[in-house]
Amino acid sequence: MASNTYPVGFYFMVCLKGENAAFQEVSGISKELGIEEVVSGGENRFKYRLPTTSSSQNLVLKRALVPEGSGLVDWCVSSMDGGLGVTIQTNDISVSLLDANGDMLVMWTFHKAYPIKYSVSDLKSQENALVIESVELAYTYFEITDNGTNTSNLFD
Questions:
Q1: Which PANTHER family match (predicted)?
Q2: Per CATH, is 12-146 categorized as 1.10.150?
Q3: How far apart are CA 39 and CA 82, in angstroms?
Q4: d(Cα 71, Cα 91) in Å, to the nearest integer?
Q5: Any idea where the domains of the chain sit in the sequence?
């Protein structure tokens, strides 16, 4: 029987390098299948729409700036400032959506992720707001695991 309660988007956990990390926002969990339109010779009423490769957005993590040492920031610096002569260290990152009891409902695991952008929100003397740091990550693929521990690649 289906549950009458639906998950809320504000109760989630991010696990990076085996450690839980607090983030204000996670975005970019999506996958899209590209198409190619092919015109049929002699048939001008329609085009064939054929599937091509799939693509995904970058994963974006946002949180309040952590002024003291941060493993996430250190990873960003070593990956982006090392140049192409230094091997980029990839990590698996998981994002878990939790229920009211703190139990996992759905987990997305992003494999071989690495930072491609680090940014800090604008500093404005007129506003009383937290300084937010954002990290954008590229990854190879992601898997979805539900609370029944069924794991599959997206669209299997």
A1: CONSERVED HYPOTHETICAL PHAGE TAIL PROTEIN
A2: no
A3: 47
A4: 12
A5: 12-146
